[in-house]
Amino acid sequence: MKNLIAMSALVSTLVFAPQAMAGEGGSCHFHGSKPATEGMVKDCAEQRRATLVKGGKLDASWTSARQEPIELVDGKKGKEWKVRYSNPAVADKTKQTLFIFFSHSGNFIAANFTGQ
To answer: What is the tally of structural domains in the chain?
Structure first.
């Protein structure tokens, strides 16, 4: 009987634990110092942009914004990926370009309109 209870508890833990830990953007969180590939960063930037639109931080017009070539730049704490989106549909010219920054290993750092 003890073995049955222990086995049931183990199976329950294994079945439900991944769902409890899953979160939006969870596939774009990396550990270690292995550099992310440009393709990984491109996909993570798309996910981050969608999250910002869904959360109301960006206007819906940003869903069709064009992604510019990705750059690897020198940041405050070393190399960073800089992803740029252009959205000419935005009336304010200072906010027509969105920058999303990721660490060299692919973790999100910040998003802004200044590029800094």
So the answer is: 1
